[in-house]
Amino acid sequence: MKLLILRLIVLALLSVTTALAQKSTIYAPGGKAINGYDPVAYFTEHKPVLGDPKITYRYEDADWYFASEKNRDAFKANPVTYAPQYGGYCAFGTSRGYKAPTEADAWTIVDDKLYLNYNTKVRTEWNKDQAGYIKKADANWPSIKDKEPK
To answer: 103: how many CB neighbours lie within 10 A of its CB?
Structure first.
């Protein structure tokens, strides 16, 4: 009987873990969206800026970090404007049909939207056909956004 109860508990925990993993629509290692970088700074300072742990905002089940209260307030007023596309997962990977992590310095802004990439080498490939990759990624995102990253 104890073994059966233990198996049921393990099964329940696995189910909960799997369900939570499926909801990883925002790239947020350790709960920090986009590794704790300020998404607004990409637009205002044109570079990645690490956010201050004291200046955060909870959005889409992730904690977003900001370098200033002004940036946080801008994000709060219109997160869709500043949040990276595809939840901050690699835009090139999304164009290929999977979710991959990103690095803060591998970024581009295209048509006033922030795109992050796995690394600067992948960004170089991304830059060869941004419009084509965006079209593919936009088509793929709805079917992969709730899947576990590879």
So the answer is: 18
pTM > 0.90: yes or no:
no
Q: What is the pLDDT of residues 79-125, one digit of tens each?
A: 999 999 999 999 999 999 999 999 999 999 999 999 999 999 999 99
Three-state DSSP class for residue 65? strand
In 3D, which of 100, 87, 115 has the Cα closest to residue 149? 100
- What Cα–Cα distance (Å) separates residue 145 from each residue in 1, 21, 47, 66? 40, 11, 26, 24
Structure tokens at 92: 């090139």
- Taking only Cα atoms into account, the Rg of the chain, rounded to an integer number of angstroms, comes to 17
How far is residue 97's CA from residue 141's CA, in Å, rounded to a whole number?
A: 8
Instruction: Single out the residue of 106, 103, 136 nearest to residue 124, CA to CA.
Output: 106
Q: Kindly list the distances between the CA atom of residue 67 and the CA atoms of 40, 51, 57, in Å, as whole numbers in the listed order.
A: 9, 4, 12
Instruction: Give the tokens for residue 61.
Output: 């089940």
Using CA atoms, how far residue 147 sits from 23, 122, 124, 141, in Å, is 7, 22, 26, 10
